[in-house]
Amino acid sequence: MSGADIYREIILDYYRNPRNFGKLEKYDIDAHDVNPLCGDEIEVQVRVGDGQKIEEIKFTGKGCAISQASASMLTELAKGKQLDWVKQVSKEDVFKMLGSPDLGPSRVKCALLGMKVLKTGVYGYLGAHYDDEDEAD
Amino acid sequence: MLKTEAFDVEKVRADFPILNRKVHGKRLVYLDNAATTQKPRAVIDALVDYYSRYNSNVHRSVHTLGEEATEAYESARERTASFVGAKAKELVFVRGTTEATNLVRFAWGAANVKKGDLLVTTLMEHHSNIVPWQLLAKSREATLEFVGLNSDGTLDMDSFERLLKEAPRLVTVTHCSNVLGTINDVAAICAKARSAGATTLVDGAQAVPHLPVDVGAVGADFYAFSGHKMLAPTGIGALIAKKKTLEEMEPFHGGGEMIREVFLDRSTWNDVPYKFEAGTVNIADAIGFGAAVDYLNAIGMDRVRDHEVRLLDYAMQALSKVKGFGAYGPQDSRGKGGVISFNLADVHPHDLATILDEEGIAIRSGHHCAQPLMHWLDVAATSRASFAVYNSYDDIDALKAGLEKAGKIFKL
């Protein structure tokens, strides 16, 4: 799969009807980042429940279909999981979630922005330092 | 090519080796010329010739190679200056427009901008004509104000006049917007700014490659442009200013070449423009710049402009038929450079660029180094197709087909 094949039905559906889009009234985690190259923007909010479980998660953002669909799908995956799951989720997991598209180097960052923001927020919450160079590149 | 011949785009295209390459198996349709242009064989040959025959440092060597290199470098300066109606001594070779604005920021700004002064630029500027002035304003405790825009993407001259009443120290403006294509009446702007006592700088990066430009008629204190946007190599550009202006300025970079005498406690400066060309200069690319200027001169800038106006008219007509297409900025090609910024319904420009790339079509997507303008347009990004002398109607037909394909994929 390559090039324009990324834009499958499911990606377009998540782009136009993003799940978990919006803001939470009460949240424990609030993280935001932009991709300076293209201006893609994602904010993720999480309410943490008992046992460090992701009880509620929502995102808002602006950007291309890939960045927005990827962030939306990731919130669906993350909901109900432990915060530790976020620490372990990898870029390969995100690619798999998107249907393993062949993204060129300039578009990989779009796909991974949601994960980067979620990880930044969770690591901040857990009080640990998150080195994005290792994880999100 | 003689000026009397009819313009033959196929003949021009044959001079650009890169146009033969395929991208994803398709003919390359290069429409990202406002970012950088492709290079004709004559420019590539000039670089190869310099490095294979007479590579040597300039100005200091008395041997044959040194003299040949110096002559070629200085001849390139003369031809590039005369291309915009300036004298050789009025042209400082710089890396590009960004270095030119930063040179003015330091070499002129440090001595001429004082606490409380007003600097004026416009909302349609490239970051290279905003950020240096923000930095200058911050370091000198001056303020920076922006001339606003009318809804058609032209400058709001009322807001310009209001700012002039506050006696700005510096007025900077782009000759042609890299996003909207708006061609500004820079001669009128500079004349008004001058009578208000302001020094003026015009960013010609998108004008000199596409229009006949006479810096004397523009009347700016500083006029800057980049080589790589006008068929020359990257890393070379020009800052034009009157000899007297350059003489009154402080140096920019200190080092070799820019000095007359160096003592332990002080130095004196070389004549202009050498005072501003510290260190070993970019000899090869300056020579390539000269070759690019020769190439454009052989076609004639009037004909370059005519060709691009025809492309603009053809493109606006063809693309406006595509479902979801909406263009920003002036719609009339007479007041517009060969740049079309647009969006296609809710298809994000990056997604569009990916789909077009699959068809061999290169456009630019994003904020085009003009974020304040993007905020004004109230968009995160736009797609941009921009033309050069080697683009053809076929290229625009390919773009139209590519947009239609993107529309299908996104079910518009």
Account of the 3D structure:
The complex is a heterodimer of chains A (137) and B (412). With 137 residues, chain A is α+β, with helices and mostly antiparallel strands. Helices cover 45% and strands 18% of the residues of chain A. Chain A is built from 6 helices and 3 strands. Chain A has helices spanning 9-16, 65-78, 83-88, 91-97, 105-126, 132-136, and strands at 29-34, 41-49, 53-62. In chain A, α1 packs across α2. Chain B has 412 residues and is an alpha/beta fold. Chain B has 2 domains: 9-30 and 300-409, Aspartate Aminotransferase, domain 1 (Alpha-Beta Complex); 45-297, Aspartate Aminotransferase, domain 2 (3-Layer(aba) Sandwich). Chain B has 14 helices and 17 strands. In chain B, the strands form 5 sheets. A 7-stranded mixed sheet of chain B has the order 4-10-9-8-7-5-6, sandwiched between helices. A 4-stranded antiparallel sheet of chain B has the order 13-14-17-16, with helices on one face. Chain B has a two-stranded antiparallel sheet with strand order 1-2. In chain B, α2 runs antiparallel to α10 (283-299) and α4 (97-112) packs parallel to α5. The longest helix of chain B has 20 residues, at 64-83. Chain B is globular, with a radius of gyration of 22 Å. The model of chain B has no long low-confidence stretch (mean pLDDT 96). The interface between A and B is medium-sized, with 20 and 22 residues.
